[in-house]
# Entry
Amino acid sequence: MTIQFNSAHSVKANQELQAPIIALLTDKLDRFSEHIARLDVHLSDENGNKEGLSDKRCLLEAHIDGSLPLVAKNHASTYEQAAEGAVDKLKASLKSSLGRSGNHHQQSINVTGSENNK
# Structure
């Protein structure tokens, strides 16, 4: 999984800002990393240089092999908090999307009630 950062002009997405976000995304999306070709991280400050609550935005765009990208966004007081909220939303979308596409183990239950994995 390749992680690519994009940021608005008012955001200095240096290594100090990126490192904890990369660690968070890598940890939380580890289960899905084989399905995600590229993860775009878009950071912006809704108020520019002015102070404000929940003005930091993180938008995550997961490019999945063989399907349309999945997008999740979140606003918070810090970029790390915004990323954490967005990754939780993205995980829910990934679970749903990959589940629908059949990328999970199917099970059938026979008459005796025991499970057989296909």
About this structure: The longest strand covers residues 36-45. DSSP finds two helices and six strands in the chain. The helical segments are 15-28, 79-100. The domain at 2-97 is CATH 3.30.160.100 (Double Stranded RNA Binding Domain).
